[in-house]
Automatic annotation (TrEMBL):
It is an enzyme of class 6 (ligase). Its cofactor is Mg(2+). InterPro entries: aa-tRNA-synth_II, aa-tRNA-synth_II/BPL/LPL, Phe-tRNA-synth_IIc_asu, Phe-tRNA_ligase_II_N, Phe_tRNA_ligase_alpha1_bac, Phenylalanyl-tRNA_Synthase, tRNA-bd_arm. It is found in: Cytoplasm. It catalyses: tRNA(Phe) + L-phenylalanine + ATP = L-phenylalanyl-tRNA(Phe) + AMP + diphosphate + H(+). The keyword Lipid biosynthesis does not apply. This is Phenylalanine--tRNA ligase alpha subunit. Mg(2+) binds at residue 253. Tetramer of two alpha and two beta subunits. Its main location: cytoplasm. Coiled coil: none annotated.
Length: 341
């Protein structure tokens, strides 16, 4: 290629440079070791001295022109790059702050536990708690459920490696703990987490119970019926019918299961009450004398009643939720529906 052609090629490529890479390629094409301009200089050797001087000047001029172009274009590209970067990272520090902080809400289970607690407090109960990793002795033995007693199968237990410990299957061990540390009269409730090997739309391996225990010298089954009726009607905010069915728990005698008229269909029969018109909501009974004795309390002198309820079930009935898992997945779309609690 002669000088004119090289210049023409340069002129035609000039306008196409977009990036620093393009520019570097251009530099190599003309000024690199095998570049066209370098080539022209090499070819000068074959020219006559006069021509050499004349041509040399012209080639030099072209080289300087290309050099200058590369310098200016390089600066321009750098400037452009910086401008774009600044534009992309633009941060308007004069904007007012985001004042609308999203406000959380109480978890429906927390709200229901608080509500239950409040109702019982108004009736003179105080609140006790116990550990979730519990002694087998308190969860079973002292509640009149000796080893190998078939009643242990009623609750599928998670055992903890350490011998003699388990995840409590109910809040009833708090009865034992309370009676071991306090003289009657006792009038407590004990809300908390319990664990069972159970998992379906109405059972979760971890769920919540509220235990109730009253021990004094004169308490009767009739007192228990009254307390539970008052509680159920306050909680469901209507005059629900309540019925006591004979049942069995090793730690109460007599024992009862407590049903309320279905709050979904008002007793007409629906899917939730399986057409019976009744919903089982509580286990209850008079504290078994063996439990009192095991805790060092004179079973001749003192009597008691106890009850246990499933918080999840109460919450599901009150808010018409048909899958217990919704309480534990904590999907924000579910939780948002309880902002007023
Ligand atoms: N602990 C029983 C259960 O989990 C409920 C219960 C508590 C029954 C107190 C009677 C008295 O099924």
């Amino acid at each position: 290629m002669d000088l004119a052609q090289v210049r023409q090629l340069f002129e035609s490529l000039k306008g196409k440079i977009q990036t620093p890479r393009d520019l570097e390629k251009l530099r190599q094409t003309f000024l690199g070791k095998k570049g066209y301009v370098t080539q022209l200089f090499k070819e000068l050797r074959n020219a006559t001295p006069e021509k050499r001087r004349e041509l040399g000047k012209l080639i030099n001029a072209l080289r300087e022109e290309i050099d200058e172009f590369i310098k200016l274009k390089g600066e321009e590209l750098k400037r452009k790059e910086l401008e774009e970067k600044l534009k992309a990272e633009r941060l308007d520090i004069t904007l007012p702050g985001d004042t609308v902080l999203p406000i959380g809400s109480k978890h429906p289970l927390s709200a229901v536990i608080e509500e239950i607690t409040e109702i019982f407090k108004q009736m003179g109960f105080s609140v006790e708690t116990g550990p979730e990793v519990e002694k087998e002795e308190y969860n079973f033995d002292m509640l009149n459920i000796p080893k190998y007693h078939p009643a242990r199968d009623m609750q599928d237990t998670f055992y903890v490696n350490e011998k003699g410990y388990l995840l409590r299957t109910h809040t009833s061990p708090v009865q034992v703990r309370t009676l071991l540390k306090r003289e009657p009269p006792v009038q407590i409730i004990a809300p908390g987490r319990v664990y069972r090997r159970d998992d379906d739309p109405t059972h979760s391996p971890m769920f919540f119970q509220v235990e109730g225990l009253v021990v004094n010298e004169s308490v009767s089954f009739a007192n228990m019926v009254f307390v539970l009726k008052v509680f159920l009607r306050k909680f469901f905010e209507k005059d629900v019918s309540v019925r006591f069915r004979p049942s069995y728990f090793p730690f109460t005698e007599p024992s009862a299961e407590v049903d309320i008229g279905c709050v979904i269909c008002s007793g007409k029969g629906c899917r939730v009450c399986k057409g019976t018109g009744w919903l089982e909501v509580l286990g209850a009974g008079m504290v078994h004398p063996n439990v009192l004795s095991a805790c060092g309390i004179d079973a001749e002198k003192f009597r008691g009643f106890a009850f246990g309820l499933g918080v999840d079930r109460f919450a599901m009935l009150k808010y018409r939720i048909d899958n217990i898992k919704l309480f534990y997945e904590n999907d924000i779309r579910f939780l948002k529906q309880f902002v007023s609690l």
